[in-house]
Design a protein that fits this description.
The structure holds two protein chains of two kinds.
Chain A (H helix, E strand, L loop, with lengths): L2 H7 L2 H5 L5 H12 L2 H19 L7 H12 L32 H18 L6 H16 L4 E6 L5 E7 L4 E7 L9 E8 L2 E7 L8 E6 L6 E7 L13 E4 L3
Antiparallel strand pairs in A: 1-2, 2-3, 3-6, 4-5, 4-7, 7-8
Helix pairs in contact in A: 6-7
Chain B lengths: L14 H4 L3 H10 L3 H23 L2 H18 L10 H20 L2 H4 L20 H12 L3 H11 L5 H8 L3 H19 L4
The chains are: A alpha+beta, B mainly alpha.
């Protein structure tokens, strides 16, 4: 074992305490996949850290309960990992191979390839942690592979392009950006699902990666629009600026 | 370098998991869209989630917002919980801690927060502590007290303070490698002291 490997192994504690950031975090997560003993230790130290967390319990604000429960009622849940077997792909016309069903234009294929490249970047991106990355990436891959995936690309007013791959059947969309300029200061890009009912946040676009990122939006239905706005650090509850791009969700 | 775990001094059976064995089952029901199960999960974990987020963020309004996001994340991603990879408590608290830490780092308000560096005591804040966790709290305090001062400081700054380990090194004025080791040794000692088994 090289000194390097030994050194990485000593990061189990810092990792379990979420005290790693940047390239070191990505490097350690890569290492974790080939180091079962590190993974075991991380698991134990996570359990330990959770005890430290449990000891901080205090009475949450009473109004929070109703808000969370109501929000859960409006929020679609992630499917279990490893779904989308071919036989579960919804009604399919017999005798018709799937490949011929929706021929993708060359441009769309390019966009899809770009999304996949972004996914690869995503996986080692500094902000991203292992579990979230795995959950997020498999959900994103599922949308990209959906038989009814539809691809639209729009230019953003600030420069760069935004591509949306939507699956009406899954009510999900993957938004991929390319060449979006970094927002000024600590501001961030936030993705919104805009419907007649109002705006719902679909999360912040990960920073860095040269303006390229992929984000999954759930609960998307035809007639909605996907918008990206610039918001203060941490994001906002409702959009506070004019969207830099708006993409209508079509069937 | 002292990386070998010190002698175990288990302090009775671990409570956090064994006292809440039903949490994993609740998560499985939540993954199937069971709202009643989610309510009961909320009632058991919203206090710890809010407490931890508030410990890291300090600001009550921001903490409430992040704690809400955490609980909604639990609802949304419950299908990704895998009991073979850890306890339900650890799964939820990991989400809570990451969310809180992500918020801290996104805001890059480190400069402002550095003035309030010294993490407060585990208890004694101006908030209503939950009676059910009094034992957890006592045990954690006792086990933290059994660490070397540097181990305890490093673990508290990293976990409760939400600092990266290079920031912890800077705050404590010690070498990076030292902090790396102290956080790990500290957590290993806590694991043994609290009788965490996985």
């Amino acid at each position: 074992m090289s000194g390097q490997g030994h050194d990485l192994h000593r990061l189990t504690g810092a990792y379990a305490a979420d005290a790693l950031a940047g390239p070191e975090l990505a490097e350690f997560e890569k290492h974790l996949q080939r180091c079962p003993s590190c993974a075991d230790e991380v698991r134990e130290l996570r359990e330990t850290a959770a005890r430290l967390g449990m000891a901080t319990a205090i009475e949450p604000p009473p109004a929070m309960r109703q808000r969370v429960l109501a929000a859960a009622g409006r929020t679609r849940q992630l499917p279990p990992p490893g779904r989308r077997l071919p036989s579960l792909g919804g009604p399919r016309r017999a005798g018709r191979p799937r490949r011929g069903r929706r021929p993708l234009a060359a441009a769309a294929l390019v966009a899809m390839a770009a999304a996949i490249v972004v996914l690869a970047v995503f996986q080692v991106s500094t902000q991203h942690r292992l579990d979230q990355a795995q959950a997020g990436n498999s959900a994103i891959a599922a949308v990209l592979a959906a038989p009814d995936a539809r691809i639209q690309t729009s230019a953003a007013t600030v420069g760069g392009t935004v591509t949306a791959v939507t699956s009406a059947a899954d009510r999900e969309a993957v938004i991929t950006t390319a060449g979006l300029p970094a927002p000024s200061g600590s501001r961030v890009y936030q993705l919104w699902v805009l419907s007649a009912a109002g705006a719902r946040s679909a999360g912040l676009l990960p920073a860095g990666a040269g303006g390229a990122s992929s984000v999954l939006a759930s609960g998307v239905t035809p007639g909605d629009r996907l918008g990206i706005t610039v918001e203060p650090a941490g994001g906002s509850r409702q959009p506070t600026t004019t969207p830099v791009v708006l993409i209508p969700v079509r069937v | 370098m002292n990386t070998s775990p010190p002698g175990r001094e288990p302090d009775g059976p671990p409570r956090a998991q064994e006292g809440r064995p039903e949490l994993a089952g609740l998560l499985v029901s939540v993954a199937r869209g069971d709202h009643a199960a989610f309510e009961s999960l909320y009632d058991q974990l919203a206090g710890p989630v809010y407490g931890l987020v508030r410990k890291v963020l300090r600001d009550p309004a921001q903490s409430e917002e992040v704690a809400q996001e955490v609980m909604l994340d639990v609802w949304r991603t419950a299908s990704r919980f895998d009991a073979a990879r850890g306890s339900a408590v650890a799964w939820v608290m990991t989400i809570a801690h990451r969310r809180a830490v992500d918020r801290v780092r996104a805001e890059s308000a480190a400069a402002q927060r550095a003035q309030k560096v010294a993490p407060g005591p585990v208890s004694g804040d101006d908030v209503a502590e939950l009676v059910e966790t009094a034992l957890d709290r006592q045990r954690v305090r006792r086990c933290l007290g059994a660490l070397t001062p540097l181990q305890a400081e490093a673990v508290k700054l990293a976990y409760y303070g939400g600092y990266t380990y290079p920031q912890v090194a800077e705050l404590l004025g010690v070498a990076l490698g030292t902090v790396k080791t102290r956080i790990r040794d500290g957590l290993i000692r806590l694991r043994d002291c609290m009788g965490v088994t996985q």
